[in-house]
Specification:
eight-stranded antiparallel sheet, globular
Length: about 850
């Protein structure tokens, strides 16, 4: 194809090889030409197309037509001018023609900085197979003159057909999220970050060396809306699609796409507490599918028994005494729970990369049927080694504490002894390897590990850990005590979600489950079911947000997170919605307390493990309790949603927020100034005279804030629609590509015509018409509101300058430098809209611990508050 470049401005033209910058002259950034502009208004250098990228520093622009990108780079080293001489007239994705003004440039300002105004115009090589210069006009040119003609061969496969097979070539497909993940890893540096995670709208890298991050390259990605630094944390603003990019980065790191990483990434060890919680989670999480499977089977068996479909099998009786189906259902609902210790022993050893076969042997031994029967000696007469049986256990007596027997027994249905056994197996295995000769290792190592694990557990660790499990059971029973009228359960559910944030919730609930519903006989527990109530409270809070938010992307994210929450996965709700917004999280905790109180009063006890989320009712023993439990969920969700609607506002009023939050600072300043001998009236007058000036300016800008808020709502709504269409296109493109690829791999089953038809569908599929229509609406909306938006930004810039002066004046009258710690308070007030739409993060403010101590010393003897 022939591609023409036109003079964007009156200029002198020369070949790119004559550019004074070596990188451009050597064509490292692509083939093209170079101009020296003679006036200040730059227009589009291409006949038609769109603006695909505007650099943050406004000095460079990518324009695109038919997948060919042209870079116009105004001046040399002008990136350091931070956009000062550039007045951009277009926005990204805007359609352009030769009459479209791109940017106004203060050329004299650039020259005063001793920088060249040379402007290279070059082709990005991404989609170009080859490029030949057909004509370059050397010398003077007027704006709009043809100054360059290039013959370009694009990289494409659409029309090519394999002569041997007769098949069309299938265009390669790689998800934009995979491409983004690969690009971000490359430009951040695969060994240049300690962690990567995401919030609702941003991808966050904890960067080791900021200098190695290629920000300009990251900004080129179509998903990127901006970059923010918070200390050493790089925040890439993407929007609602951010979690998909994070998932693909995880896949790339795990080698799912066949990538290898030669550099070893530096890993920062977390605190010991978090390491322990990671271990507990790593051991217990693999058990969840098994517990859910057995729990649901147990629930199904219990319901079928209630309806008379199956015969009941009493505890301790033989399943062989009932019919085949009833017996099988009973066995399938019991074996997993009775033998759970074997799974925990296996999981522990596997987590620590030990010998899992030995783990199974030890687990089976500690649950052995041989430890369940014998001729018992009455507990009153029994001594060491006698077999005893009763409500307090069955096994060989070691000794007694009062009338409580300490036994060598089977630990069927228990957990902690098996985790201890697994750790012992791993430690012993490593220790023995250090000294045992290899010639006898295979004979004796397993024998020693087996003996030195089973015997200590049976005689020492097992009895000790039984007391731990019993203690957890006592705590659970105490909280469920009817004398507390449900308040114990209410306290538990109120605190549950905050416990989730600490990471210790898994260990707590597992200890409760192990010490209650996994015991033999079962100890029914309200607390086990109360966990789901706490989760549904957060679901309700997210529902409240979804119902009242004007942020379309937040609404879409909320509905998706609510669906996940109904199935027990609440992390997206907690970390993506409720916690960042604050009040919805509190509303959820309060509603959880109501739900917990109701569960305690009604004694909604779980008797066996159940499914997560909406399947939680299956752990209840009777239909009545199951229905009451579901009613409790509905009440909890309703209260949480209602409280959220009452407490949460989409954004805070800039003036009211700042005035209210200043009270905390003013209290500190009053005490400081009292110490200096001023009266309260003088202090109030001095502080108010400074602050009211700023507050008055803030109040005067209310109309600006309101207009911008309405604009952002409309803009956000369109962006959400575009995002949904992009996701749909991505999903369907992937489906069509996979289908075509599958048909190609099975050519003997399909005709050439059918395969080519499938390939053509995959190659041609696009929703670009619908997407372009919405993008044009968005561009039109932005341009219509450009003047208002600019006015808003100027107001914010002016207010920012003014609040910094306010802080300086407060420091001056108080001689208390720590006032500057409250600067984020002013930032949050003036940037309310952008914070609530996820463009900025809300900033923390206030004195540090050390500063608080120093402050208390200052006011100690002045009678301050």
């Amino acid at each position: 194809m022939e591609f023409k470049i036109y003079a964007p401005v009156d200029c002198d033209v020369k070949p790119i090889e004559e550019c004074t910058d070596k990188i451009f002259a050597q064509k490292l950034l692509g083939e093209g030409l170079c101009i020296i502009p003679k006036n200040t208004d730059f227009y589009s250098p291409i006949e038609k197309g769109k603006v695909s990228l505007i650099f943050g520093t406004k000095h460079a622009f990518f324009m695109e037509y038919d997948q060919i990108k042209v870079l116009m780079h105004i001046g040399m080293d002008t990136v350091g001018l931070q956009g000062k001489p550039f007045d951009v007239k277009v926005i990204e994705k805007e359609k352009i023609s030769l009459n479209t003004k791109i940017v106004g440039v203060n050329l004299k300002f650039i020259e005063k900085q001793n920088l060249s105004i040379e402007t290279p115009i070059v082709f990005e090589q991404e989609n170009i197979e080859s490029i030949v210069v057909k004509k370059i006009l050397k010398g003077s040119a007027k704006k709009g003159d043809l100054i360059g003609v290039f013959e370009i061969q694009k990289k494409h496969l659409e029309s090519q057909i394999n002569k041997k097979t007769g098949l069309k070539n299938l265009n390669s497909f790689k998800s934009k999220y995979v491409q983004a993940g690969e690009q971000f890893l490359k430009n951040v540096g695969e060994s240049n970050f300690s962690q990567v995670y995401n919030c609702m709208t941003r991808l966050r890298f904890t960067v080791i060396d900021k200098q190695k991050v290629k920000e300009a390259e990251i900004k080129k990605n179509e998903l990127v809306r901006g970059i923010i630094w918070n200390g050493n944390e790089l925040q890439i603003v993407i929007g609602g699609e951010v979690y998909k990019v994070k998932d693909e980065i995880t896949n790339i790191q795990n080698g799912i796409y066949g990538q290898t990483h030669s550099e070893k990434k530096e890993i920062q060890k977390p605190p010991i507490g978090k390491q322990l919680m990671s271990i507990v989670t790593g051991i217990m999480v693999p058990q969840i599918p098994m517990l859910m499977a057995v729990g649901l089977f147990a629930a199904l068996q219990a319901m079928l028994v209630q309806f008379g479909v199956l015969q009941a099998v009493n505890e301790g009786s033989n399943p062989g005494n009932v019919d085949l189906i009833s017996g099988l259902f009973y066995i399938m609902s019991k074996v997993g729970l009775n033998m759970i210790g074997v799974m925990f022993c296996y999981s522990t050893v596997k987590y620590f990369k030990g010998n899992t076969i030995l783990a199974i042997l030890v687990g089976l031994t500690l649950t052995s049927r041989f430890l369940f029967s014998g001729i018992p000696t009455p507990i009153e007469e029994a001594g060491f080694g006698d077999w005893v049986a009763g409500m307090k256990g069955t096994g060989w007596l070691i000794f007694k504490i009062g009338d409580y027997p300490i036994l060598v027994k089977a630990y069927e249905g228990s957990v902690l002894p098996f985790i201890a056994s697994g750790i012992l197996i791993v430690l012993l295995d490593k220790w023995i390897k250090t000294w045992m000769p290899s010639v006898i290792d295979i004979i004796f190592r397993g024998f020693i590990i087996y003996a030195l694990t089973v015997l200590p557990v049976l005689f020492i660790l097992g009895p000790i850990l039984s007391f731990v499990e019993m203690g957890a059971s006592k705590v659970a029973v105490a909280l469920e005590n009817p004398k507390l009228f449900g308040l114990g359960v209410a306290l538990f559910t109120f605190l549950w979600t905050p416990l989730v944030l600490t990471g210790i919730h898994g260990a707590i609930i597992m200890s409760i489950i192990v010490s209650t519903i996994m015991q033999n006989p079962v100890v029914p527990s309200v607390l086990v079911g109360a966990v789901a109530i706490a989760a549904f409270a957060q679901v309700g809070a997210a529902l409240g947000v979804a119902l009242i938010t004007k942020n379309s992307q937040l609404r879409s994210f909320s509905w998706g997170a609510i669906v996940a929450g109904l199935f027990g996965v609440t992390e997206p709700i907690i970390y993506g919605i409720n916690l960042p917004k604050g009040k919805p999280f509190i509303a959820g905790c309060i509603a959880a307390a109501f739900g917990g109180f109701m569960a305690g009063i009604l004694k909604l006890e779980v008797v066996f493990p159940s499914g997560m989320g909406i399947f939680g009712f299956s752990g209840m023993e009777t239909i009545t309790k199951q229905l009451l439990y579901i009613l409790d969920w509905i009440v909890t969700i309703t209260i949480a949603a209602g409280l959220t609607i009452l407490l949460y506002s989409e954004k805070w009023d800039e003036f009211k927020y700042t005035k209210i939050k200043l009270k905390k600072l003013n209290k500190i300043l009053t005490n400081i100034l009292l110490k200096q001998g001023l009266s309260k009236d003088q202090i109030k007058q001095n502080i108010e005279s400074i602050e009211n000036k700023y507050l008055s300016e803030l109040k005067d800008n209310k109309e600006n804030f309101d207009k911008y808020f309405k604009f952002i709502i409309k803009k956000n709504k369109l962006e959400d629609k575009i995002s949904k269409l992009n996701n749909l296109e991505e999903k369907n493109k992937k489906r069509l590509f996979d289908k075509a690829e599958q048909m190609i791999s099975k050519q003997d089953k399909y005709s050439i015509e059918k395969i080519n038809e499938s390939i053509q569908k995959s190659n041609d599929y696009s929703l670009s018409n619908q997407i372009n229509k919405l993008e044009n609406e968005l561009i039109q909306l932005i341009k219509e509101n450009q003047e208002m938006s600019d006015s808003f930004e100027i107001s914010v810039e002016k207010l920012t300058k003014n609040y910094k002066n306010t802080i300086k004046e407060l420091i001056k009258i108080s001689n208390y430098k720590e006032v500057e710690m409250f600067e984020p308070l002013f930032f949050n007030g003036v940037n309310s809209i952008k914070i609530n739409f996820g463009i900025y993060d809300q900033q923390n403010y206030g004195l540090t611990k050390t500063q608080k101590k120093d402050y208390k010393k200052i006011i100690k003897n002045n009678g301050g508050n």
